[in-house]
Write a structure and sequence with these properties.
single chain; about 325 residues; two-stranded antiparallel ribbon; 2 strands
Length: about 325
């Protein structure tokens, strides 16, 4: 065997091709990791939307009373008297915007929270679960802000001083469109300051709070536990962020003209109310009661829909 043949024999993975040897690497190329898109789980979105419909139907009149107290700085009995004077025909006036807005935002809140959590954990597998969930909650709350136009129209329709200018939702949207797209997003900053952080608190403590309650021994007991955990947590969060909602309502009641800052609006309201912090919470008692009912219904309804829809999805996979 010649010297050249000996070298070719001793070097692995060398093949002779014509006059020049071709070196084939002994290390096979590794396939590039495929980035998988996290498909949304429709169960989370539908469950959140269904919970919103149940909630709005039950709590809209209470929400209207709270809004009057926030905006007009009046006592509960005065707000009730106003609604009685306006009659039952107008009790659900303005319900369409919050129904659409809450259905979409709660659908996004629960659906995007689940989807964002999976995305964060996929791209950052070493990220602690709690941190991933907190980030997902903030992102989902921020994403909900796209629905601000519905909240804007709801504010205008609930103010009895605006009745001669805004008759219904469609007409309100048409009137606002004259001022441009930005007019629909008046009050965006306090909504962003409210949604992201409050979502983070809700999702961070929802599971922990439920664990404190007695273990459910039946389906009805499970519903009660879900109601209590959502009710208490939602009421506390709603109370803490109440002054921010007062600022948001004041900003959104205006149409046209300059856009006031959140801080400037807060200082103006604070001065108007005699620089008394407790007056920034005018209407908070009814708001706390409404939030107890509202978030109890939302949490219990969401878990109810989610449980039944997951069962339907599993049955569909099995071909039942």
């Amino acid at each position: 065997m010649s010297g050249n043949e000996q070298r070719a024999h001793t070097l692995p993975h060398i093949h002779r091709t014509g006059h020049r040897p071709l070196l084939v690497s002994s290390v096979m190329p590794q396939p590039q990791p495929q980035v998988q898109f996290q498909h949304p789980d429709w169960v989370e979105y539908v469950s959140g939307g269904g919970a919103a419909v149940v909630n709005i139907a039950a709590t809209f009149p209470l929400n209207k009373l709270i809004f009057r107290q926030q905006l007009l700085n009046i006592r509960l009995r005065v707000a009730v008297k106003q609604l009685k004077h306006e009659g039952m025909r107008t009790l659900y006036r303005g319900v369409l915007p919050p129904l659409c807005q809450r259905t979409l935002t709660l659908s996004m809140m629960f659906g995007l929270y689940d989807q964002y959590t999976r995305i964060v954990l996929q791209h950052f597998p070493d990220c602690p679960l709690t941190a991933a969930q907190m980030l997902a909650a903030i992102l989902s709350g921020t994403s909900e802000a796209i629905m601000v136009p519905f909240e804007r129209v709801q504010t205008l329709l609930q103010d009895n001083r605006q009745r001669r200018y805004y008759y219904n939702s469609v007409q309100a949207f048409k009137r606002l469109s004259v001022y441009g797209v930005s007019e629909f997003y008046r009050g965006l900053t306090p909504i962003l300051l409210r949604n992201g952080p409050s979502n983070a608190v809700f999702f961070a403590f929802r599971g922990h709070f439920k664990k404190v309650l007695p273990e459910a021994t039946s389906k009805s007991h499970e519903v009660v536990n879900n109601f209590i955990s959502g009710a208490v947590l939602g009421a506390v969060i709603s109370t803490v962020w109440f002054p921010l909602n007062v600022v948001k309502s004041r900003m959104q009641i205006k149409t046209g003209g300059n856009f006031e800052s959140t801080w400037g609006t807060f200082k103006l309201i604070y001065e108007e109310r005699g620089r008394k912090w407790r007056k920034m919470f005018r209407g908070v008692q009814l708001n706390f009661s409404r939030a107890l009912i509202s978030w109890g219904i939302i949490n219990a309804s969401y878990e109810f829909f989610k449980s039944h829809l997951n069962k339907l999805k599993e049955d569909g996979r099995k071909g039942y």
